[in-house]
Amino acid sequence: MKIAIFNNQAEQSVNIANNLVLAMKKNNVIIDNSNPDIVVSVGGDGTLLGAFQKYVDQIENIRFVGLHTGHLGFYTDWLSDEVNQFVDSLLHDNGQKVSYPLLELTVVRTSGEAYKFLALNEAVIKQPIGTLVADIYLGGQPFERFRGDGIAVATPTGSTAYNKANGGAVLHPSLPAIQMSEIASINNRVFRTLGSPLIVPQDQEIIMRPKSNHFLVMYDQEEIKGQNIAELRFKVSQKRVHFAQYRHVDFWRRVQNAFISEIE
Ligand code: NAP
Question: Is 163 annotated as a binding residue?
Fold first, then answer.
C-alpha cells in the first residue's frame, strides 16, 4: 500500500502530516506522492478539493481519506484528536470504499476545440462586472435565456457548498445527478428564468451558450483562463471519486453537524 499525504499549510495540519509520515515509516508503509493508492488529506474540505484536483488524472486507482483539523467535514471522516485511531484503521486497510458522483465539464472554444474537466464540488460560471447573458439548453432543447450574475452546477457532495448558498437543495450523494442553481438572476416582465434550482439526471446534459465574453469559469478551486468560449456542457461523469471508508458517517449527520447542531 502506497500513501500520499496532502495537507494545507496551517501549523496544526503540518504537524499532523509530519506525525503521519513518521507513523507510516515506522510501520513500513511506503510514502509515494506520485503514484499513491491512498491520498490522506489533512486540513478541511477545501484541502480535500485540492488533493482531488492534484490527483484527478489518477482518481480511478486512488482512494481519498480526509482528516479535518476543525469540525467534521463532508469529505473528512476523522478529526485531529483521532490521529491514533486513524493510523490504526489505515494500517488495517482492506480496500473498503465508498464512491460519489462527479461533474464533467466540457468547455468548447469558438475554434471548436473541446476540453474536459472534472469537479468534485461544482463548476461556476460567473460574470463579475455587468450581466452574464447565456442561453441554457435542457434535453437538447432551448430552455431559457439566463441574465444575471451566473450559474453553478453542483455534484451531490458539492450541494452543501456554493449550491446551498444559491438556495439549492441538499442532494444525497447516492443520487447520480447534478444540480443547476442561479446566482442573482434578473427576473421581471422582460427577462425570465425558471428562478429555482433544477436537478438533472445521469445521461442528460445542461448546455450553456454564453452571449457575453467577460465571464469566469471556475471548477472547485480552479479557474479556466481565457475567453473565446462558445459552449459549456455539464453532465454526471462516468468516473466517480472513491473514499477509503474505515467508518461510516451518515450523510444527514454531516449535514446536521455542519448546519444545525454539534453531533453529541
Ligand atoms: P474557501 O472560500 O476558503 O472556503 C469555502 C468553505 O466551503 C469552507 O468552509 C469549506 O470547508 C467549505 N466547503 C468546501 N466544500 C464543501 C462541501 N462540499 N460542503 C460544504 N462545505 C464545503 O474555499 P475552499 O476551502 O477552497 O473551497 C472551495 C469551495 O468553496 C468551492 O468549491 C465552493 O463550493 C465554495 N464556495 C462557496 C461560496 C459561497 O458559499 N458563496 C463562494 C465561493 C466558494 P472547510 O472549512 O472544511 O475547508
Answer: no
Give all strands (DSSP E) within 34-176, no chain letters.
Answer: 38-43, 63-68, 78-79, 97-109, 114-119, 122-126, 132-138, 141-154
Cβ of 150 less than 6 Å from ligand 1: no
On whether the CB atoms of residues 222 and 107 are closer than 8 A, the answer is no
Ligand 1 and 69: CB distance under 6 A: no
In the chain, count of helices (H) and strands (E)?
A: 5, 16
pLDDT tens for each residue of 193-252: 999 999 999 999 999 999 988 999 999 999 997 679 999 999 999 999 999 999 999 999
Does domain 2-96+245-259 match CATH 3.40.50.10330? Answer: yes
Which CATH code fits 102-238? 2.60.200.30
Q: How far apart are CA 163 and CA 180, in angstroms?
A: 8
Q: Are 4 and 48 in contact (CB under 8 A)?
A: no
Ranges of each domain in the chain: 2-96+245-259, 102-238
Write out pLDDT tens, residues 128-162: 999 999 999 999 999 999 999 999 999 999 999 99
